[in-house]
Write a structure and sequence with these properties.
Layout (H helix, E strand, L loop, with lengths): L4 E2 L6 H5 L2 E5 L3 H12 L3 E5 L7 H6 L4 E2 L1 H7 L2 E4 L3 H12 L8 E4 L3 H4 L10 E7 L3 H9 L6 E7 L5 H11 L2 H4 L1 E4 L1 H16 L1 H16 L4 H30 L2 H14 L2 H16 L1 H11 L3 H11 L2 H10 L14
Parallel strand pairs: 2-3, 2-5, 3-4, 5-6, 6-7, 8-9
Antiparallel strand pairs: 1-9, 7-8
Helix pairs in contact: 2-7, 4-5, 10-11, 10-14, 11-12
The protein binds NADPH dihydro-nicotinamide-adenine-dinucleotide phosphate, ligand LWWEY6Y5 and magnesium ion (2 copies).
């Protein structure tokens, strides 16, 4: 195998249990890391600004909540789980003044290090534990005795022990139950951005919406179109998750499999592949990062407009009505945060 994968037996939980961890941010990833680390016997404090919307939740869930600066001052390991676009100013205002030799700064995604927005001093460890899944499922899997795979990387090894500490952290959130893969900040950042833009989020959302539009514009019932293009996608992807595309093809009918084999490449054709390569190029050159930082600094005008357009898409109304009748869809992501 070309990568190194680490499991529970390879990680020493004692290394992170011996440290105090400040989790900066209590959103999707922050709540999952904080709750699971605490369940793993780690001393955790939360860093959130006064007036943060997340403060009541973290306090209700039994955490000491300090400002990011206070939490960073107390902790030995500072895990930055605030939005990527907020991290640069949090770092300069609250974290950097509280760094000292022997401390470690951790990230859940490499964006700010990869694009040079944060440059920690040489005397601290800089590492990453990046779960390959949404935070609410990171927590749910941990609570169910399972785990979400993580990418683990060290950018700066001041202590000589940064990788072992990062592996210990990954174990504390269940990552080494599923497998922690050793990588670099660059590989994690570029593949993560590519995956979410081209395949997992951008690609999948556009595929689902477009399929729904084609069926409803042709006069088919929105409910039928919803089940066909969105609901059933999970069931098909579950089979891929369990046994790859081969297992999915084993389970579907021959008719579906012939349609898959003969038509799939007409949908995802060479034009789509060229566009994917272009998107990867924008990530590698830093063009996407510059665009996103500028969009955020301008108050996110396009982000807000596109978010509203997505929310107003007819598939959302149809889905809301149908999901209201599905008693088995009973684990809302709001149950943990
Ligand atoms: N979402 C995911 O599943 C994944 C995320 N990641 C990475 O994890 C990191 C966190 O992302 P995510 O969990 O989605 O973030 P969320 O948007 O879900 O949560 C962000 C949290 O940070 C808080 N916050 C906002 N501003 C500040 C600030 N100035 N100081 C301290 N805390 C602040 C927010 O509080 P408030 O409620 O007040 O806004 C909120 O609690 C990112 O680096 C992301 O790329 C990595 C893998 C998957
Ligand atoms: C797929 C989106 C993601 O990269 C993730 C959940 O892993 C993110 O940034 O939220
Ligand atoms: Mg990701
Ligand atoms: Mg991501």
């Amino acid at each position: 195998m070309s990568v190194e994968v680490f499991y529970d037996d390879d990680a020493d939980l004692g290394l992170i249990q011996a440290r105090k961890v400040a989790v900066i941010g209590y959103g999707s990833q922050g709540h999952a890391h904080a709750l699971s680390l605490r369940d793993s016997g780690v001393d955790v404090v939360i860093g959130l600004p006064e007036g943060s919307k997340s403060r009541p939740k973290a306090e209700e869930q039994g955490f000491r909540v300090l400002t990011p600066a206070q939490a960073s001052a107390e902790a030995d390991v500072i895990m930055v789980l605030a939005p990527d676009t907020a991290q640069r100013s949090i770092y300069s205002e609250s974290i950097a003044p509280n760094l000292a030799p022997g401390k470690a700064i951790f990230f859940g995604h490499g964006f700010n290090i990869r694009y040079g927005l944060i440059t920690p001093p040489a005397e601290v460890d800089v590492a990453m534990v990046a779960p390959k899944g949404p935070g609410h499922l990171v927590r749910r899997q941990y609570a169910d005795g399972k785990g979400v795979p993580c990418l683990v990387a060290v950018e700066q090894d001041a202590s000589g022990n940064a990788f072992a500490l990062a592996l210990a952290y990954a174990k504390g959130i269940g990552g080494t139950r599923a497998g922690a893969i050793k990588t670099t900040f660059t590989e994690e950042t570029e593949t993560d951005l590519f995956g979410e833009q081209a395949v997992l989020c951008g690609g999948a959302s556009a595929l689902v919406q477009t399929g729904f539009e084609v069926l409803t514009e042709a006069g088919y019932a929105p409910e039928v179109a919803y089940f066909e293009c969105l609901h059933e996608l999970k069931l098909i992807v579950d089979l891929m998750y369990e046994g790859g595309i081969a297992k999915m093809r084993y389970s579907i009918s021959d008719t579906a499999e012939y349609g898959d084999l003969s038509r799939g490449s007409r949908i995802i054709d060479s034009r789509v592949k060229d566009e994917m390569r272009k998107i990867l190029g924008e990530i590698q050159s830093g063009e996407f990062a510059r665009e996103w930082v500028a969009e955020d600094e301008a108050g996110r005008p396009n982000f807000t407009k596109w978010q509203a357009e997505g929310a107003a898409h007819p598939i959302e109304e149809t889905g809301k009505k149908l999901r209201g009748m599905m008693s088995w869809v009973d684990r809302p992501i709001t149950e943990t945060a």
